[in-house]
Write the structure tokens for this entry.
Amino acid sequence: MMFAHPRRAWVAISFGACVDTPGRRRKSSQACAGQQGAAVEPMSDVSKTIRARPTSPHIQVWRWHLTAITSIMHRITGVALYGGTLILAGWAIALAFGPESYAAYMGLLGSPLGKVVMFGLSFAVFFHLAKGIQHLIWDTGLALKLPAANAGAVATLAFALVATVVVWIIAAMTGAL
């Protein structure tokens, strides 16, 4: 008994009917599927000739490139900026709750740990900005060759570091720290 549809054949087998499915054959000396001692074997030995699927390259296999590192940093700084938005929202909430809450929150941001976090967020802003501009340039089809892409990555890092340091120097000179 043959079924034109493979699902019908599966249903028939699962309920114990004696069915030959396409691509499979039953040895004449064996019982039907669903009965004691039933066995179905493949029609060919194709499974022995199929090679194992290739594995995906691992981090340890590839040499790190500057463009790959800055791409990962772009994603990390995007997540950091989300955290910075939560810090900004906390600042606005502390401001709305009155002078005592605001002073406590500013004390937290002015602590050494708070200053490290704010310095990191400053770097994240400038890095994400520069990398976003590099992506806009890439979208136009320019600077896609490896030397130009590497130069853009160096420029992105340099801009982010210099801009962050300059902003913090200005903040220190004006007494904002």
In short: The beta strands are 24-25, 41-42. Residues 48 and 125 are 55 Å apart (CA to CA).
